[in-house]
Amino acid sequence: MVIQLIQQAAKRQAELRSKLEEYSEEVGETKRIVELVQNEDALQTSGAVAMVRRVENLGQGLKRHLMSMGQPKSALRQFGHQLISGSEDEAQLASFMVRLGRAKQDLILQIQVANVGLAKSINNTLLVEMATVNKLHALLQETLGEGKGLKIAEFLRQKGAVLEGSESIQLSDAEYDKLQTEEREALHPEPVDAALNVGGRRIIVDNLTRDQALQINGPVAVDIWKDMAFIKIEGNIASDTAIQTNYPVSMDVFRELLAARAAGIGSR
Asked: Are strands 118-120 and 244-245 parallel, antiparallel or unpaired?
């Protein structure tokens, strides 16, 4: 039995090296996408900024976990740690990477739906400045891969517009509404379920708060969501010393949260 455990630990240690190489590539790719947003003002929408912060928070947690895994140990102690706690460390690491992967995909979507180049003319006509669209559309495909450019560029192409060589393209109000609808559907695809046609829907996304944060994304005291058929809450970020609820809470629970938050701030 002991020999088998030792063999398993040795195998896990070798497999971990391979996994870390894969994870390193994933982190590097995510870092390039974050830098793309940071370097291009037009891509810094509220949704993209929220997702960048989520990625950064996950990155900090991942860094702390990797540092704890990589604390200096003798070869014997390292092997013993792998024997006793290796699988738990790897499970936590895998969990971080799954969450980071999801956040990366959400960030990509937020970038793709950025309505870059949109402006109103003197007579309130909606115009799309094509130099900006073409530049960022090409940059996104270069960074993310072919076919992963701006949604607005694909929308204009389907509309029959000539993207290259045009200074600006006019959008009617109806076309703009259609573009917005397509982008919302891309960001928040709803499950295909007949039951959803009976109840209502609630979608709450891209919320931000920072220090001294207080964020309430659900009902307090009275559960006005109880008959909702579909609720989606995502991309919510709070910070120190946060109180955040994403679910209906009673007034008693809400008061307790406020009291705990006040006590935490007062002790600083």
From this structure: unpaired
Look over the chain and give the mean of its residue pLDDT values, rounded to a whole number: 75
Domain boundaries, the chain: 2-111, 118-187, 194-266
DSSP three-state, residue 218: coil
pLDDT for 262 beyond 50: yes
Q: How many CA atoms lie within 13 A of 173 on its CB side?
A: 1
Beta strands 168-171; 126-129: pairing state: antiparallel
Ranking 125-129, 199-203, 212-216 by mean pLDDT, the lowest is 199-203
> Quick count: other Cβ atoms within 10 Å of Cβ 23?
19
Any idea of the CA torsion for 157, 159, 162, 168, to the nearest 10 degrees?
-110
How far apart are the C-alpha atoms of 107 and 31, rounded to whole Å? 11
Cβ burial, residue 36 (10 Å; 0-12/13-18/19+) = buried
**Residue 209: what pLDDT?**
62
What is the 8-class DSSP label of residue 237? B
Q: What residues have CB less than 8 Å from 187, skipping those under 6 apart? A: 47, 109, 110, 113, 205
